[in-house]
Amino acid sequence: MKTQSFTTTITVPQSPEEVFAAVNNVRGWWSENIDGPTGQPGAEFKFHHGDVHRSTQKIVEFVSGKKVAWHVTEAQLNSVSNKTEWVGTDVVFAIARSGNQTELRFTHVGLVPAFECYDGCSGAWGFYVGESLRALITTGKGRPEPKQEGGR
User: Fold this and answer.
1) What's 12-81 look like in SS3?
2) pLDDT tens by residue, the chain, 152 residues
3) pTM here?
4) How far apart are CA 80 and CA 143, in angstroms?
5) How far apart are CA 49 and CA 59, in angstroms?
6) What are phi and psi of 150, to 5 degrees?
7) Non-local CB neighbours of 101 within 8 Å, separated by 6+ positions
8) Going by DSSP bridges, is the β-strand pair 53-63/44-49 parallel, antiparallel, or unpaired?
9) Residues 71/77/81/87 CA torsion (nearest 10 deg)
10) Angle (nearest 5°) at CA 58 between 34 and 7
11) Distance CA 141, CA 132 (A)
12) Which domains does the chain have, with CATH numbers?
């Protein structure tokens, strides 16, 4: 039996292009603690959440209105024993029209229940995608983690 990576799906009335633009506005829905460009193929950006989580994502797929994928090249998760659990995982946003709605399917490929961080990480992704990114898409204002002083 194959172990499932964390996946969540939202459906919104906005166009695939609007959803794509919102996904790439990472500071608008995930965190204001992002260093580097988040909306161009091949770019790398760094995320930090205090001293608890730091990671570097490289944008490896970027198809306008259809798909964005990040490859996690570095990670340090200080709340678990294997601090590099995220290294080598992929964060994928698949966008498709479904009738008069747009479906966004988010998958953190490699984030599986065997990971010590699975419960906390999947819960966080559930909020950031299901609530914050949805709000950014539908209202223009997400609920990202606010900027922390003294970050990277």
Assistant:
1) ECCCHHHHHHHHHCHHHHCECCEECCCCCCCCEEEEEECCCEEEEEEEEEEECCCEEEEEEEEEEECCCC
2) 466 999 999 999 999 999 999 999 999 999 999 999 999 999 999 999 988 999 999 999 999 999 999 999 999 999 999 999 999 999 999 999 999 999 999 999 999 999 999 999 999 999 999 999 999 999 999 999 999 865 44
3) 0.94
4) 26
5) 20
6) 75, 20
7) 11, 12, 13
8) antiparallel
9) 10
10) 85
11) 8
12) 6-139 (3.30.530.20)
Tokens coding 12: 């919104």
Tokens of 139: 């209202």
Length of the chain: 152
What token pair was written down for 120?
């906390």
